[in-house]
Amino acid sequence: MRLKVLSFAAALAVAGAANAQIAPLEPVETAALARDAFSTGLLTRAEGALGPDLWEGASPQILGRLLEDAPMRPPSPAVGDLLRRVLLSPGAGPVGAPASLGGAKLTALSRLGFWEQAKTIESLSSSPNGEPDTDEALAVADLLSGDVAAACQKNARLTRGRDAPFWVKLRVLCYAAANELDAAELALGLLREQNLLTERDNAIMTPLAAGGALKSPVAPEGPVQYAALQLMKVAPTPAMLADAEAGIVKATAFNEQAEWPVRVAAAIGAAGMGVISGEELKALFAEAPLDLAEVSAAGDALAHARTDPMADVAAYQSVASMTAPEFLRDKAALIADALDAADTMARAYAAAVLYADDINALQGAIVSPQQAHAFAIARMAVGDAQGAENWLLAMQSGGLGGMSDEESLALIEAVGLLGLLDGAAARRIGNAANIAVETPRAPLANTGYDAGDMAEVVDAVIDAAAGRITGQAALSAIAAADAAAKGDPVASVVVHRGLETAGLADVAGRLAFEQAWSATFAGYSSPPSAGAAMGEQGFAPRLKPSRRQ
Q: Please, is 409 exposed, middle or buried when counting C-beta atoms within 10 Å of its C-beta (0-12, 13-18, 19+)?
């Protein structure tokens, strides 16, 4: 009997195991593997990717033109971040798109400073070998990451498009790097005969091909010029980055041959264009070599060396060292000082990114109205309207009567800025503080653009709105963003319509905030020259206390 019971139990166990083996599996989220570079992306929806149908109904020709028009020096962090999101969003490309469209996308990524992402996308996609635009994108990635040899190997293997100006200029660089100066002179001569050299090309590549040195400093316009200057051992300076593409600015931040003040200034500039991540920025600031005395004197450095980027590094490292609870008030004060010391929007935005976690951790701490104001603006800068509202509530917790006139005006101005991000939050603060809320508006201006300059972008956004093509709409807004930041009325309409069509109201709010915020930095340009000193006076507030009793 015992044997039968055991046998029956064993049979049940076997049956249970069999049933377990054939039980239905939990559904697994899958995605189709993209087969071309344009369709391949790296972001998930949670990481900011647009919907997978973002290119559905788009015209390859229109997208190609928009990629050409996209600013390689984004005018603000929100523009650079949106460009990153669009280019890294996965989604099937438009019907009939040539392989060159994927190459154009990868080239844009590399020139913006996202060269690692461009390489990853190329490795994941089935881009055809020898596609010139894709090869150019990878060569640009090599040049900006300091691997001239790899770029030259790609040039040597090229089978198509060898006579394109980019590749001929790269050959001049490669011949010079190999000390084949006669060949370098010959390639340079071909470019000169075809009138394909810019003024800066001539200034940089003529001494390069001759094995000489620069007569005077020259700011690089593109990756080949940047690599040529590195080959000639020309130390980068902040002035050389004044109008450089985002990728060159970011490359300088990671260039170990550059002086640390220049690297930090470049990192701040890259932050102002939205092309460097918070993790990269924090790692660079933590790595900068400062001795203990310099870190300990961070407060004095901020007060007396307002345009020195290393003062920002000292402040960051000092804040990072304040881990004990008893340093909480000192930490809050130093963070506020670092935020207030910023004399450009790029520097202020970089500080907001650097101290984002610290400011969040300070929620609930007792701080001064000036510190709460600084923290509120910092949270707005990174798009956190809720965090900004909390700090503005803390700022006016004692009522306007308990604040100085300067603090009251600062609160009014800050509430107006918050209204650009979140109108409801601004109204709540206004009601609590008994002030009227008016959002500042940037004046429209004649930027020098004629109708023809914007015609193609206008057509693109109209086409996108009619077909609800979200990716094309977002690219249209990006292409018009530079002119819109300068006050061009047509470009401003394109940006508004493009972001509305793409369902990016949050980005529209950030752009409006950044444009108004930039006006508080006298002498601001988009983005400012790294290390440039700015004036002290901000803009006059447009907001006045209400007359409610």
A: middle
Residue 216 within a domain:
yes
d(Cα 205, Cα 197) in Å, to the nearest integer? 9
- Structural domain including 191 reads 97-248
Counted domains in the chain:
1
Angle formed at CA 473 by CA 506 and CA 243, multiple of 5 degrees: 80
**String of DSSP letters for 520-533:** TSTT--SSPPTT--
Angle, vertex CA 266, rays to CA 264 and CA 267, nearest 5 = 65
Selection from 82, 527, 87 nearest residue 267 by Cα:
527
DSSP type of residue 486: T
Cβ neighbours for 383, distance < 8 A, ≥ 6 positions apart: 78, 421, 506, 509, 510
Sign of CA dihedral 310, 316, 319, 323: negative
Q: Are 106 and 134 in contact (CB under 8 A)?
A: yes
Question: Of 500, 453, 494, 454, which Cα lies nearest the Cα of 476?
Answer: 494
Neighbours of 51 (CB within 10 A): 14
423, with CB counted inside 10 A (0-12, 13-18, 19+), is middle
Model pTM score:
0.86
435, part of any domain = no
At residue 545, the pLDDT reads 33
Q: What percent of the chain has pLDDT over 70?
A: 86
DSSP states of 51-109: PTTTTTT--HHHHHHHHHHS-SS-SSHHHHHHHHHHHT---PPPTT--HHHHHHHHHHH
In order of 427, 496, 497, the CA distances from 505 in angstroms are: 19, 9, 10
Burial 499-510 (b: 16+ CB within 10 A, else e): bebbebeebbbb
Dmax (CA) for the chain in angstroms is 104
User: How many angstroms separate the CA atoms of 495 and 461, rounded?
Assistant: 9
How far is it, in rounded angstroms, from Cα 219 to Cα 226? Answer: 8
Is residue 24 situated within a structural domain?
A: no
- Give a yes or no: residue 322 inside a domain: no
The token pair at 285 is: 């600031």
Amino acid symbol at 81: D
Cα angle 407, 412, 414 (rounded to 5 degrees) comes to 90
Residue 112 identity (one-letter amino acid): L
Terminal C-alpha separation, the chain: 94
The reported pLDDT for the residue numbered 339 is: 96
Neighbours of 193 (CB within 10 A): 9
**Would you place residue 161 in the very low, low, confident or very high pLDDT band (cuts 50, 70, 90)?**
confident
Band (8; pLDDT cuts 50, 70, 90): very low
The burial of 9, by beta-carbon neighbours within 10 Å (0-12 exposed, 13-18 middle, 19 or more buried), is given as exposed
* Segment 324-345, tens digit of pLDDT: 999 999 999 999 999 999 999 9
